[in-house]
Please model this.
Amino acid sequence: MDAIPLFFLLGFAARLARSDLKLPGQLYEALSIYLLLAIGLKGGMELAKQDPLQVLPQALSVLALGVIIPLIAFPILYKLGRFERHDAAAIAGHYGSVSVVTFAVAVDYLTARNTPYEAYLPLFLVLLEMPGIAVGILLARMGGEMRNIQWGALLHEIFLGKSMVLLAGGLLIGWIAGPQGLVPLEPFFFVLFKGVLCLFLLEMGLVAAGQAGQLRTSGPFLAAFAVGMPILSALIGALTGALIGLSPGGTLLLATLAASASYIAAPAAMRIAVPEANPGLSITAALVVTFPFNILLGIPLYDQIVGLVFGG
Model:
């Protein structure tokens, strides 16, 4: 078994056992900055090797994927789950956006198996961060009041939030510098990546276990949604990846991105644009259920789905 998800389990078990284990807050911030920059740099480096005109149709298809997923999630939550419109839209927006750490675990999964993939996939990570959030906000406001939204603060949060600046900035630096320009940075940003990811997952386990009590008040439907929706999204992502010509490895990464849910960018944006939504519902679904499901069971399952899509 891959060792990296076990660090998440260690943190989760330690918190449930009421251990005093915890990472300093500033170290957690530093680890997240490192991961976002490293992923962006690597994607930019690989993007520099590509013809932009060849990547553009794929990028547009990925943007469409980010719009479709929340449009599927919303009626499931609103009609079947009987959530309030603002809660259903906010949760759907979280599932239209993505999780950087889940993506990093999927990259490690492929690397451990020597499975090639299009290394410019971090570009799609950046693209998928935004449309799901925008659709979630529009769904919340349809038939309601739009003018009370603080658009300036909202756009600032979406486009200039920490995760977007670091990811897009790293992507841009990697693209401009190219493979030769990044050679001096490889020991720090690429060789140490796996160890830093382990520490980050340890912290995520501690955080997720701290939120686990919310499941008792959220209801079984939300827990079922938080497992079923990623599987459905992964299938859609796998079909999309195959249709736009990605390799099986690249398709698995896209399926994993589609299956992941945001617990950093989306909560901040929804707090501004849909303040009446209950953030506990979204965080519980995305972080307590979907995130551990994806890194422990989901990615191998999505690998099987990709195999079926490619006729393996």
